[in-house]
Specification:
By secondary structure, this protein is α/β, with parallel strands linked by helices. An eight-stranded mixed beta sheet has the order 1-9-7-8-5-2-3-4. Strands 6-11-10 form a three-stranded mixed beta sheet. Helices cover about 30% and strands about 20% of the residues. Helix 5 packs across helix 6 and helix 6 packs across helix 7. The chain has one domain: Spore Coat Polysaccharide Biosynthesis Protein SpsA, Chain A, CATH 3.90.550.10. The structure holds 2-acetamido-2-deoxy-beta-D-glucopyranose (2 copies). The site of one 2-acetamido-2-deoxy-beta-D-glucopyranose (NAG) has 3 residues, from loops. This is Globoside alpha-1,3-N-acetylgalactosaminyltransferase 1 isoform X2.
């Protein structure tokens, strides 16, 4: 008799869950990973102290956002809320990538903060907009434009800051735990599961499911990340394979083998669609509600 594949698959998943061959989310609010990287939660740091340490180092934080197509509508709220919450008092340089530079709003920036608009070509598919991001990040760093920066973040634009985001988030390589999966067992993570893709992660592996909305670190480490992910994306593209969650899938693969030196808790990448459970003390940054039909050229 032919085994029922579906049942077999479920059994395998269940077995993996029992044997705990990948992190099973036993303590969803741990403040250290198994490789001893801090996980930044409210209450694990002293905001004034940590800011003052990095202030003495006179750092510059470069931040890229990609506002292609109709996504420029999100820029105003993103920038205004960033000015209220994001590295307040630090030197911040925003790089806004847009195919509609004339639609980039004129937001009043604090002292020592500046914004550069990077004009890019239009794309007709949102998947391509997402796929091109690693390449643009890689090219931006190669151009030498961010040479004056010590740290670089790449953030989604369809977002808003609701709370403080400061020097506690700095480190060599920074990933954020995805709001929808911080308390899921790792066999349920939406990693790319087809071995044909470079983003493939087998069911027996995985630490966390990282969100694609936030990545960061030193300019050097972000360059390695962007370059590697872009190369993997190119290999997939040549084989006409698109990973389940495009760039985010490749980011997860990268972080599996190049462990982040610091993780941001889902406080740093929430989703307005998701109710705040009791254990989450503060939401600092969150994806805003959007009407996909209005902002994406194709669904
Ligand atoms: C801080 O860095 C900025 C930009 O890199 C530089 O212009 C400035 O002179 C520095 N200030 C100090 C006190 O080192
Ligand atoms: C943008 O599009 C133009 C015309 O299609 C092309 O010549 C140019 O190389 C493109 N630029 C980039 C950066 O892709």
């Amino acid at each position: 008799m032919m085994p029922n594949l579906r049942v077999l698959k479920l059994k395998v998943v269940f077995l993996l869950l029992l044997t705990g061959s990948c992190l099973t989310g036993a303590d969803v609010q741990a403040d250290l990973t198994s490789w001893l990287a801090p996980i930044v939660w409210e209450g694990t740091f002293d905001p004034k102290l940590i800011d003052s340490i990095y202030k003495q180092q006179n750092i510059t934080v470069a931040t890229t956002v990609f506002a292609l197509g109709k996504y420029t509508v999100f820029l105003q709220d993103f920038l205004e809320s960033a000015e209220q919450n994001f590295f307040v008092g630090f030197r911040v340089h925003y790089y806004v990538f847009s195919d509609h530079p004339e639609q980039v709003p004129d937001v009043k920036l604090g002292g020592e903060r500046k914004l550069t608009v990077m004009t890019v070509n239009s794309s007709s598919r949102w998947q391509e907009m997402s796929l091109g991001r690693m390449k643009r990040l890689e090219m931006l760093i190669e151009s030498g434009l961010v040479n004056d920066a010590d740290y670089l973040f790449s953030l989604d634009v369809d977002t808003k800051f609701y709370g403080r985001w400061g020097a506690e988030t700095l480190g060599d390589l920074i990933g954020v735990i995805h709001a929808w999966y911080y308390n899921s067992p790792c066999v349920l993570f939406p990693y790319e599961r087809r071995p044909e893709s470079q983003a493939f992660i087998p069911y027996s592996e995985g630490d966390y499911y990282y969100g694609g909305a936030v990545l960061g670190g030193s300019v050097k480490c972000v360059y390695q990340l962007a370059k590697t992910c872009r190369e993997q994306l190119d290999i997939d593209a040549a084989k006409s394979i698109e990973a389940a969650w495009q760039e985010e899938s490749h980011l997860n693969k990268y972080f599996l083998y190049n462990k982040p030196s610091k993780l941001l808790s889902p406080e740093y990448s929430w989703d307005d669609q998701k109710m705040k459970p009791q254990e989450i003390k503060i939401i600092r940054f969150s994806q805003v509600l959007k009407n996909y039909a209005e902002v994406r050229p194709n669904i």
